[in-house]
Amino acid sequence: LANLLQGLNSPDSAVKEKAIAEAEKRLREQGASREEEESRTPVNRTVINTSVRAFPSETKAAPSSDGFLAALEKDAKERAQRRKKNGQLADALKEKGNEAFRRGEFALAVQRYTEGLQKLRDKQELYTNRAQAYLKLHEYEKAISDCEWALKCNKNCLKAYFLMGKAHLALQHFSESRQCYEKMLQIDPQKENLFKECVNEADLEEKRVKDEEMAARIFESGDVTALSIQELLQRINSPEQDLPYYTGGIRLLAELVNNCTEQTFFRTNKGFSLLRNEAVRGAFCAERKSAAEVELCVSLLLLWQAACAGNEENQRLLLAQPEVSAQLPELLSSGTSQIQRETLALISLCSGNENGRRLLLRQDLSRWLQILMAFVKSTDARADSAMNILSDLMGEERFQAQCRVLFSTGVLPLFTQLLVCARQVNQAALARALGVLGTLSADVELRAQLAGSRDCWQGCLLLLFPGVGTPWCPLSSPFVTPFLPLLDLGFFFPGVFQDFAVPISGRCLALLSHQDGRIVTRAVGVLSRVLPASPSAVEEAVKGGVVKKMLKFLKAGGQLTSTFAIKTLSVCTQSSRRAQEELLKGDKRFQLLLRLLQSEDELLVGNAAFCLAQCLLVPGAASALLGSSVVQLLLRHAGGDAQKTSVQENSAIALGRLCVAEPRHIHQLRKLNGFAILNSSMKYVHSS
């Protein structure tokens, strides 16, 4: 028993587990023994012991089973208390380690986490936290070991696999690194984006290593270009030379860097440390540049373009330099066309690929939308370059978030100004800028700011509706497609349409003859949202032949266009007697509406029933439906279980009006036993 208790208290987990197993075995045996004793028939087994009794001091009392169980229970309680106390101490040490880690004192953090593990050896968080500190100290093997221990505590520990993947990557164990990331994805498939980033990082690092190994072999072979790049970099880094000297050297260097191997030579020979040269850095960062400083700056930008084209590792190193990230927006705003052009070209190299965009988005881009939008005023290639960059960035959530900072105070006033003088700026670039705003309006906050800018809306309308003497042609205008997404703002902010419903609906009517079916569908959709905001817009639209055009789209049968078209008709027939009469005239015996009533789409059915109910107010309309299946269709929908209650309501109203306007339909209703449904629907008829 003493040995067993000693084993239960052992710090060695293997010894402790063995002791626990032995204790459980003895308890089972004793329990079985008791049951066996109780089941036996009592027998007198008294035996006379003729041997000499030993003195009490010469015998050793055997421990009883009750005493053994009590000892186990006492030991369990003591161990639970010790574990609770040690857990509290371990948590306190973990917090101290976290504080040290946040201060950048990684060695101290390791010490605190280690002390915590001495208190509680199976605390997973201490292992992963210490592994993270080891990564900062570049002790990668120790980090991997701690991650393995964390996985023994919790086999599904995502952080352990993530940190172990990072440690293997630092040791250039690329296969093992990817395996860790794959395990992470298996545990939590929702981490797919993180998985892609990690694997991409591993791929780039492996490529970098291979490129540098190849470059080293070529350099050792005495390659002339490699030696020239090294020599030029040494000369450019020499101090106390005049600016033309540095400019000439940088120009020569840019001509030598033409492929991946030469880009690697440039990187491995510390080509990105040119800004450490005081004269070069001064010229690059100067607020007001002289002609010589402009030449040097342009030369640097050309060199970086050559070094970074298609080379993501070089892009990373370039953008990691504080001077570069700080100066990019200043160079774009410099007012010097050469510098602006080459800066835009350099940024385009990065924005054109996913990794480059990720690098750019690490910068503060809050000013970029305003700066790049200003290039719409340019009449040369700068406008297109700026819009290309915006097109690349505008889909990124981080960019949208940064745009919020200056959107209402900086971007919208600038854009409104561009709209007002639209005839004097680059038309194609302005159309793309309009598209950028339309895309950014997907962001809730930006959408609210845009919808609230009355001046911006007036500018948009002025752009599309120039007035007398300057006719607008929807078939050739470059602003049609990008403008339509902005009109969708009215779906979220009806106040926008209340102010501009008449001109917007008029322009959408003009777009209905456009050759591009997507533009036509979008225009019909905007009409279906604009018209409910303004009775005047409905009146103008009906005068413009909207009913006839909507019937044409319904006959064509496109699903989305039909949904918008029947909604537009329901709005028009609700308030316009002329629209009701034109629909009756254009849809002989309501064949189109009857066809829509047979649809499985509740939106189509509900609006078709509504249109029919409005048109039945016209004398003779109900008679035109004699002999049709209209009663059966309306009865089915009025008593149906559609999710949208408007289907039942509109069908019931139409059914009631049908029978009131033409009593001969009552016979068909009676034949179908529909009076109960009609009676239950009378409340809709009265409320209508």
TrEMBL record:
UniProt keyword list: Repeat, TPR repeat
Leader sequence segment: none
Taxonomy, superkingdom: Eukaryota
TPR repeats: 158-191
Biased composition (Basic and acidic residues): 25-40
PROSITE patterns reported in the protein's UniProt record: TPR
PANTHER family per the UniProt record, alphabetical: TETRATRICOPEPTIDE REPEAT PROTEIN 12 (PTHR46540:SF1)
Protein name (database record): TTC12 protein
Lineage: Eukaryota, Metazoa, Chordata, Craniata, Vertebrata
Gene coding for it: Ttc12
